[in-house]
Request: fold
Amino acid sequence: MIGRGRRAEPLGPVPPVLPQIIAEVVSAEHVVLTVNGKRLPATPTRRDELGPAIAELIARFASPTRVEVRELDGSVYADILTPDPDGAAPVNESPERPRPELVEFTADGFVPGEDVAIALVLRHTSAAGNGTARALLDRAEHATVTGELILLGRISGTTTVRRID
Reply:
């Protein structure tokens, strides 16, 4: 708010249409970024990397930018953010992420339209003498894409296991 006798500091040139960044939360840990109506190819982005990612985009635009965060519960937070007045790009302390290396798996036998779970096999366990199996997971463990991948149909029960080479 500007008080009496105080003048607002100019923000620099404001374009007639502001650039727009939409961060759509798709899970507790990930967001999908859309810039000016185009989804960024490197998304989803980890939620803890959202601030630096938005700051870097705003620095590239070098103008005020409308930013919306759309949460899973449907709430939307919006603001207009301005770039650093010095024009300096934010310092990225994390190492640069490698480009995605996509691997495609296709399987059939699923019910059309059913949800199919994708699971990475972290390790194997053996069934006990009574046929039960037990898995212990460390929540802090980070899954790595090695070994095997499972596609599991939630309705059909169709299960496909593929080796990741």
In short: The first strand starts at residue 20 and ends at 25.
